[in-house]
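Pasting two entries for a bug report.
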Amino acid sequence: MSKRVARAVDIGFGYTKVAQSMIDDVHGLRALSFPSFPSPVASNTGFATDVMDRLHFVTVDIDGARYNVGPDAMTLASGRAVRTATDLFFSSPQYQALYLGAIAYMDLPKGQSTIHQMSLGLPTTVWANETLRSQLKERMRGTFEVPVPDSGETRRITVEEVSIYPQVLGLLVSISSQDGDMDVVAKQNNLVIDVGFGTLLWMVTKGFKQQMGRTSGTQGGVSSMLKAVARSLGNGLQNDPRTLERIDDALRLDQPLQVDGQTIDLARCRAQADAQALTHVQELIESIGNTNDLDNIFLGGGGMHLYERILQDTFKGRVIRRPVTEPQFANLNGLQDLAEQRL
C-alpha cells in the first residue's frame, strides 16, 4: 500500500515556498523557495541550449499561455517585468502558474502520483473572502500535468483535498510546535505578525482561534520599504524588480548598495525604509487595540529582519518569539504540520 502524502505551499507576493517532504522527528522539513515571478515564455529565448540547461525552472501551461516558473524564472524575464502586488494576484493565471510550478517541485515517494492533503496559505485579508477561498479550493484540487524538473518530461499528479488557512496561522503553529509549548499557547492570547514581500499581516488569537476583529493586514510589507528607497534613487526605479532585489540584499546583508554605478549611503536608505515600516506598525497597533492581554508575540516571515527592531521598540520589555529555523519557511512549516494533522 502506498504511503499517504501531505504537502503545503505558501504563495506570497514575493516568494513561493514549497514543502518537498513530510516533517521529520526534529521538526525538519525539506523546502524550496523561488520568486513569485512567472515569466511568459517568449517565442525565442535567445539563450544557448547549454546555458538554458544550467538554469533551474519549469515551464507550465495555463489555458494555452506558457510561463517559466522556478528559482531562475527572473533571469528569463524581460527588463520590463513587474510583480503583481494586489488582491487580483490570487485569481490570476500567474498565481495558477506558480501553483503548478510548486507541485512540479514537490518531491513525492517513488511511484507515488497523489497528494492526499494539500495546505495552502493566504494573507489574512484575502482569506476572509469566502468566495475567493472557495474558488481557489476548486482550482487547486484535481489532476494536473506538470513538468518533471531538469528532465524535459511531464507527469500527472492528483491533489485530492485542499485546506486553506491564513498564512499567519502557519507561523503560530510552527513556532509553538518547535518550542514545545503548543498546549500552553492553546490557552493563551497570542499576537502573530508575518512580514511578507507585499504585505504586513497580523492576527490575534485565543489559543489557535482567530479574534477576527483584531486580525488584519496592510499592503506594503517589504516591497513598500524597498520602493520608498528606490523612489529616492531615481524615477521609475520603484517598479524595477531587479533594483528592489538589490536594495533588499543591501539592507539584509548590511552591504554597500550599488545603483547606476554609484555607491549609495546605506544609513540613509535604512532610515527611509524604517519610516515606511513605522506607518505599517502604527496600523497594526490601531487594529489590535489594547495590548495588555497578549501573552505571546510571534514574529516571522522572510522580511522580519527589516521590522524586528521597530517592533521591539514598539513592544518594549516584551519577548518576541521568532522561528528557530529559516524565517522565510516558518509559515510553510506550520502549514505542513496542519496538512499532516488532517491527513
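Entry 2 (this is the one that rendered wrong in the viewer):
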Amino acid sequence: MKLYLSRFFGEFEVPGTTRGETPRAELGETVLVVEDDDTVRTLVVEVLGELGYATREAPDGPSGLCILQSDARIDLLVTDVGLPGLNGRQLADQARTGRPDLKVLFMTGYAENAAFGAGHLAPGMQMITKPFPVEGLASKIRSIIEA
C-alpha cells in the first residue's frame, strides 16, 4: 500500500491572525492575570511584559478579587474560567460590582458554549480558547482595551 500526499511549500499561518507587528501596550495599561496553573500564568505575564503592559498576577479567584477591590489601576482582567473555588466568571461578576466598566478576557481550554453553558458574555467580556498563539492573545487584548 502506498499513500501519496501533496507537499506544501508555503508558509503556515494560524487562521484569524495577520502577519505584521504584534500589537503593543499604549499609555501604560495594566493587566491582571488570574490563573491557577503557574506555568500558564507565568507565560502570559511574561508575554504581556514583553509587549509593554504592566502586569499584576494572582493564583486564584480570591487573591485576584483582593487586587480588584483595591485602588490599583487595572485596565483588563485576564482570567481562567475554571479556577477552583471562585471561578473566573464569578470573579468577573464580583469585580464588576466595584468596577462596572472592567474589561474581561476569559481563557478556557473548552469551547465557549461548554465553558458558559451557551450563556452569552456581557459587553466588555470576550473569550480566548487555550492553547492560543501569542499574536492572537496580543491582538485580542489590544482590541478589548481599545473598545
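Dev reply: Rendering is fixed now. As a check, the viewer should reflect this: Helices lie at 38-50, 61-68, 88-98, 112-116, 134-146.
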